[in-house]
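sanity check this chain:
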Amino acid sequence: MRKLDKRTNFMTVQAALKELEKIEMVRLTDNKYRLDHAAKATQKIILKAFGMDASIIKHYAEEISIKLEEAKKMGRTRKNEFSDTIEQQIEKAQIKVVKSKAAYESSVSSLQVLLDKRDAVRKDELWKEILKSEKTYEEILRYIKVDNLTEE
């Protein structure tokens, strides 16, 4: 029996691109970019077709990491940090205003309640004294009107 010839490896361009898209770089806690995982055998074969290998990709990841660090040192991100702090300060100030407004409205409403209670107590005292008084309604009214005229 004759052995079948080995089938050569082939992939469509779309399948090769999808396989290469699986190679990911991630930013680690030290803010450096590295490959998420080692390149698989099929990915290595595809890279080899273009004259590349996994070490080149690792090298590119390191270069990207270095360029990002240099950009931070040059101050490009300082504007963002500064604007973030301004935005945070604005947000805190707005929260303070809302809290202050709520406290003010609460204080005003409690003051209004107290003033209403005081007025009610005064009216009650006044009516009690009027009822106890021997003066007539007309005399009390005349007294109040004369008092108002002298003040003017």
Observations:
- The chain is about 70% helix and 5% strand.
- The beta strands are 25-27, 33-35.
- The CA atoms of residues 7 and 111 lie 92 Å apart.
